[in-house]
Known about the structure:
By secondary structure, the chain is α+β, with helices and mostly antiparallel strands. The protein is built from 17 helices and 23 strands. The two termini are 25 Å apart.
Amino acid sequence: MCGVFGVIGHPMAKEFLPTVLKSLQHRGHDSAGVAGYVTSDVSCLETVKGVGKVATVLTPENLSKFNGSTYIAHTRYCTRNEASSVREIHPHWAQSMLGKMAIVSNGDLVNVNTLIEEIRKLNVKVYTKNDAEVIAALINIQIRRNGKKVFSSISETMNNIRGGYAALMIMEDDKRLFAFRDPWGIRPLHIGEFNINGDKCIAVASETCAFDMIQRYNLSRYPDHKVSYTHRSVKPGEIIGIDANGEIESAYYKDIVRDKIGCVFESIYFSRPDSMQKQESFQVLRERMGMELFKESPMDVDLVTAVPKGGIPSAVGFAKASGIPYSVAILEEPTTGGLRSFTTNDNDRQALATMKYNILHDVVKDKRLLVVDDSIVRGTTARLLVKNLFAAGAKEVHLRIPCPPYSYSCFYGIETRDPKTLISHGRTIQEINDELGTTSLAYLSLEGLYRAIKQDRSLFCDECLSNCNPMDELMVQV
């Protein structure tokens, strides 16, 4: 669950790049990086990357060497390998017949070890098991074979890799920005077209909230200009090339156009509430999840509250549907910097769970609480939070989750490969309730989830909830 961002054709791209990438910080806080053309030679690609958040890495001093209007950037959530290894940080690059190429990606390949063996047999060096480096090496090999044909080289690479991925690429000799998404569409990718007094600029990002940041910048920077933008999802299997004039060329892997949305956990947890899916914000969608949750698990309590920030939309929906007052009872500790415990390692997760939330004692004292959180994965945060709520004087703590139990591994970009780390794996809901110490516990059903999303289940990967592997269907199709 990393964040990727690319832009081409905007004269002030370097100025807004750090701010826009911060809007994707929630998708990964282990490291950040950017690739672009340097001031001394606009045909020369360079990278800036480092461990830490965007504000630490993309400083004005570090970005001073860049020039031009084309960049790709990344925020990393480490799902395997070393989070602190500089070699693992995106962008990754390879030396090709079209000069240096830089690539960033979100997701995981399930056949990465086999691919590395095949690459090394061709005497091509790869230094890590990072998916982006492997994809870059494979595209480089295909460019040599295909005589510099980038689209066909990407398509041939997609024919060899298996997993969920969304990737962006720029090159020294071919000045286009390339974007491509896995044929099942598991990892999200969106393209936005901006118009400033008739001049076009194109951006590509994991979430549409990045486009809102650019639009706000444009409105502020060009107050006397006519400014507008449109956006759409990059389709599963779509390969896009964009030039500096904003002209877009598009092709599809095996010429098959699929109408897929992707990972259902984007709807539940990953994406920001102000990002869009099918022209609807995740805020509105998650409120409906809370309404469905009330229909399935009504409760007579004194007040509804949320675990911030992820539980807020569904808690609002539950309160609307039930008529029970909604109140803020749990505050996120500002010193934790908005970190998500889900995306931290085991030691950091325990420490963060301990420090992340403060309880408003006078709000919860002697109250029967209905607490909504977006999900429970390992249960680290929920255990401590329930204990703290009772310690603050709550009479009852009823926990409601607006999605089914997260019971199975994900191999496509989330660090939940070991199912034994998942609190709901192999446990009944009553056993989970006893483990957490809640007065009661209820989850939204899979059917209720898709009623709230208002999209057909066949459009999504929900293997983490259902144990149904989307790759089985994909292998039949291709």
